[in-house]
Amino acid sequence: MSEKYDVIVIGGGPGGYAAAIRAAQLGLKTACIEKRINKHGKPALGGTCLNVGCIPSKALLDSSWKYLEANEKLAAHGIEVGKVKLDVAQMQKRKDDVVVQLTNGISALFQANKVTWLQGTGRLLANKQVEFTANDKEEAEILEAEHVILAAGSVPVNIGVAPLKDDLVVDSTGALEFDSVPKRLGVIGAGVIGLELGSVWARLGAEVIVLEAVDKFLPAVDAQVSKEALKIFQKQGLDIRLGARVTGSEVKGKKVTVSYSDAKGDQQETFDRLIVAVGRRPVTEELLSADAGVSLDERNYIYVDGQCRTNVPGVYAIGDLVRGPALAHKALEEGVMVADVIAGEHTQINYDAIASVIYTHPEVAWVGKTEEEAKASGEAYKTGVVPFAANGRALAAADAEGLVKFVVDEKTDRVLGMHVVGPQASELIQQGVIAMEFGSTIEDLQLMVFSHPTLSETVHEAALAADYRAIHIAQRRRKK
């Protein structure tokens, strides 16, 4: 007789492990299926994010920024350090140690909450049955559940014009494992992943060329912010080429030659290594049997409603498998929401108030509507923009590039969106998230007292600027 659970979660990434922990907290007998074997040959929870995504990339971003600071930034503070030595092996070891600490932490949380971790592969069958194949076995067993949560995540998209090749042409996972700094590094894709990974190796001394097929830089970002970010990144030495469509690649020896076309015609560049970062696709093909009954759209994402129910009663899907941005924090909150819904509690995510972040330096972060979206809606709006150059704390830290921007409904005074490029943008953007979640007006933010000196004062000034009330920048007066 097969084992039966109240809830089976397929996938142990941020969405899956959060769903499993919350379901167990609510008294449901819960199992989580996760197949990942880490680089040390051991089973690991945490999915792409903790193992080969968010966490290791941030570890390398922080390490590489410290190296850059020691090399180029400390002298201005009166700190002389002499010749700085780079130890890539130690940098990689530190990254791996952080990953192991966090993934082991998820395992400990499973034990504490009595979640059964099934180490292997899961596939949804008809009638909410789950086919489970353990990592150390060839034969599958059939599990049953009252509720199944699909949380298998996504994988990098590969492109035929630049197939992966050993450690020369790599995806985002391979780009985290370089054992030396390439002299010339190519990156296909100027999105979040491409910019972050390109930044890591550029800071460590690589000449980085980023090839982006579309003509607009960061098209999902507010145009004023993306323009400012592009200017800053180019000043840092990132060679970002827009409208550059890759048409082929060739590996010869230890070099990669990339062919692409742009407004100037056919071009070629030769690199020591090439990163392919053109997006990710949902893992749905291996997840569902032919008779599972779960509906997919034309891009193989799973159809769900506002609370992540699929068209099959008792089956839910979350995270990168479904509509919306592929963000770990979105997946995590969807996992918690689904567990609550299963337990009979009412929970709803406000999808309009989920922030996105690019962890370059300076960071880029945004939530809600861009000015372009507000303008396209036809409704009256206003904006407030303040540069970090007007902020005492940013200047004191010698980190004053970028700006904060609010987009506000002219009639209701409600905050429609917030956009930041600058220091600690990932932290500052949460103030916009909170404001939008509580339906704040821009006046609410104007009337708050912000500590001085802090970066957060830039948020306050931008709120004031929406009504021409900013104190620390010169503004034209409102026409009467």
From TrEMBL:
Needed co-factor(s): FAD
Enzyme class at the top of the EC tree: oxidoreductase
Keywords of this entry: Cytoplasm, Disulfide bond, FAD, Flavoprotein, NAD, Oxidoreductase, Redox-active center
Entry EC no(s): 1.8.1.4
All copies of domain FAD/NAD(P)-binding, residue ranges: 5-335
Coiled-coil ranges per UniProt: none
A Gene Ontology molecular function term of the record: dihydrolipoyl dehydrogenase (NADH) activity
SUPFAM superfamilies: FAD/NAD(P)-binding domain, FAD/NAD-linked reductases, dimerisation (C-terminal) domain
Annotated compartments: Cytoplasm
Protein's UniProt name: Dihydrolipoyl dehydrogenase
Cofactor: binding details: Binds 1 FAD per subunit.
Chemical reaction(s) catalysed: N(6)-[(R)-dihydrolipoyl]-L-lysyl-[protein] + NAD(+) = N(6)-[(R)-lipoyl]-L-lysyl-[protein] + NADH + H(+)
Record-stated family: Belongs to the class-I pyridine nucleotide-disulfide oxidoreductase family.
